[in-house]
Amino acid sequence: MKNFNTGGQTGQVKRKSPDQRSRVSILRWNQFSRSQFRQHKVIERITWPIGVCFRSVLRLRRNVRPKGIVPGALLDPPRQHFDRCFDVAVVGAGPAGLTCGHYLARLGYEVDIMDKAKGPGGMLTQAVPAFRLPEEMVEREIDGLTLPGMSFEYGKALGKDFSVTDLEANYNAVFLAPGLWSGRTINIAGLEKSKMTDGLSFLQSCRGNGKGKVGKDVVVIGGGSVASDAAVSAKHCGAKKVTLVCLESAEEMPCLQTEIDEMKTHGIKIENGWGPKAAPSKTKLSFVGCKAVFDKGGAFSPVFDESKTMELGFDQVILAVGQQTEPALAKYLKKEFGREDRVEVDTQTMQVVGRSAVFAGGDIVRGAGTVVEAVGDGRNAAAAIDALFEE
Question: What does pTM read for this prediction?
Fold first, then answer.
């Protein structure tokens, strides 16, 4: 791992000579060329469980084949070798960061991956419930992605321990994929006096401690996969009664039908077409009917029917209404890129607008997305980074 200078000084990283770095003979394709890689003509053998990151938990494992790929070479023992003699910094050890690092390592780059967590995997190891994605499966997939030429440093946060400017001064290219690690909340009058948490924090607690603390009567607000996972996790943690309430009708719910069926199997009641209005007491929550969630153009614009009301009792509320950038990172991104939510990139190359050697992908670009999207971003960024140094 490079001990880069964080003193604010900038400078050009000199290219290493071949004898200064370890040779990385790890290309495993029977027939492979950079042009094939960039044109997506070779089957990638990355078997991330598809769509686990909160919007489409399919519970399947498939070969990820980005758009445009046609059947190509199979994985064989190493037959070719590239040594690019360049260093790349990757921020974030989730699916996007690991994928980018994996491909760059295969192409002969030295890759340093930094993450604020204690280990790799991102949401897959820190938030997705173990009953949804067994730990041993994730470890096996990460082991398969980790190759010679990839180094890891944990407990390092972007904007706190280093800046993008620091990385630019010490690496030839940078890929940013820090993820969205803050659960969104909504303003519900009176709820601040009750026991309330966001869905992401609750899932992280369950995953990290093995079992989260829940009340006996839990209300989950939200209709996506985070909400579904939170509701089922609450049951696993000992809640006697769990009710999921969402704006959407049963047909509009963002979570999968299999997740809806699973909730019903666990005895979780689903209340469709309701929006939270207020908490008249510490143990009561009132709702109003929701007539429509989206406008004619498909934009989120809920319409409520104030004449239709419902009240539920609870001793804990879990708000699963989306994810956002952590406040500290958002403040830093605002200073660095002029935006505090998502980083603006060229969608084909994942190159950050206005920064020639900085790329970004995953949730920090798309918002909360799927593993497939993150893997695609990491792969596209790796191809674009490699193209920077074409001789």
Answer: 0.80
